[in-house]
């Protein structure tokens, strides 16, 4: 297993951005009938996002993702999302375009990653869970599966979970995106429900949240909305809080589902 702590100069963010890459050493080959040669099979890839106030190394420090990547022969790319919610901001802070387009293109050029949709996945926790939902559905021609753990789920359809006017660090990071501080003015590119509806090539979805998590209600409402609207998905709701014990358990649970044919 090769691990790499790297920096990319992002045109979307107009600065250097850190990411951590885990690239398997186990190379598989497949016979190509057209070329009559054995060819290397590019790796399936998971773009894995950290939470609010987190760091691109969080998954490496707090989980066994390097070990699991080796077990499942899966490349994993973990970028810095700062506190940007992985969505495009005013004034060119385009975290969404960076995650959904630029980072994918750059890492595919650098590493032997598959360029097939069916081999390309996105996942995350909390803010990163929202980022996985937002970018998984926004760039649904790129990503075929989404893992969303303890996710924020922003929507105009149900906005009773949080008071945006309260002066908190998280809300202050959202105010540039929602200047009115009311969910009815949520930008279209942050409305999870609308993004699901609009995605023509809908990714498969694995959604999980602990029953003691402060985000459980919005995940339950989203889960029920998906059922009511006929959108198939995997849903896990079990005892647990907004912590690494839960995220480790359910990332590990999701990985076989992720890499299955």
Describe the structure.
The chain has 261 residues and is of the alpha/beta class. The chain has a single domain, classed as Rossmann fold (3-Layer(aba) Sandwich). The chain is built from eight helices and ten strands. It has helices at residues 58-62, 65-71, 95-110, 127-138, 169-174, 192-198, 216-228, 244-259; strands spanning 2-10, 15-23, 29-32, 37-40, 44-49, 74-79, 120-125, 145-149, 204-210, 234-238. Strands 1-2-6-5-7-8-9-10 form an eight-stranded mixed β-sheet, with helices on both faces. Strands 3-4 form a two-stranded antiparallel ribbon. Strand 7, helix 4 and strand 8 form a beta-alpha-beta unit. Helix 4 runs parallel beside helix 6 (192-198). The protein starts with a strand and ends with a helix. The mean pLDDT is 93.
Mean pLDDT: 93
The CATH topology label is Rossmann fold
The span between the termini is: 23 Å
> What's the helical proportion of residues?
25-40%
Structural class: alpha/beta
| Beta content | 15-25%
Major sheet characteristics: 8 strands, mixed
- Per CATH, the architecture is 3-Layer(aba) Sandwich
């Amino acid at each position: 297993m090769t691990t790499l702590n790297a920096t990319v100069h992002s045109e979307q963010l107009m600065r250097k951005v850190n990411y951590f890459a885990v690239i398997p050493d186990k190379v598989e080959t497949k016979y190509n009938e057209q070329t009559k040669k054995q060819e290397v099979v590019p790796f399936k890839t998971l773009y894995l996002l950290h939470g609010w106030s987190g760091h691109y190394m969080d998954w490496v420090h707090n989980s066994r993702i390097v070990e699991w990547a080796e077990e499942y022969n899966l490349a994993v790319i973990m970028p810095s999302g700062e506190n940007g919610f992985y969505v495009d901001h005013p004034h060119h802070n385009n975290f969404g375009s960076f995650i959904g387009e630029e980072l994918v293109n750059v890492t595919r050029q650098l590493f032997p990653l598959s360029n097939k949709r069916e081999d390309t996945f996105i996942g995350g926790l909390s803010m990163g869970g929202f980022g996985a939902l937002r970018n998984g559905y926004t760039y649904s021609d790129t990503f075929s599966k989404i893992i969303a753990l303890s996710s924020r789920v922003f929507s105009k359809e149900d906005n009773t979970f949080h008071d945006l006017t309260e002066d908190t660090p998280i809300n202050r990071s959202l105010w540039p995106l929602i200047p009115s501080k009311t969910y009815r003015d949520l930008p279209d590119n942050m409305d999870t429900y609308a993004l699901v509806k609009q995605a023509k090539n809908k990714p498969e979805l694995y959604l999980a949240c602990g029953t003691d998590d402060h985000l459980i209600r919005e995940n339950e409402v989203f889960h029920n909305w998906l059922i009511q609207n006929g959108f198939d998905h995997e849903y896990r709701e079990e005892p647990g809080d907004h912590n690494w014990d839960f995220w480790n358990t359910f990332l590990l649970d999701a990985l076989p589902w992720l890499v299955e044919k």
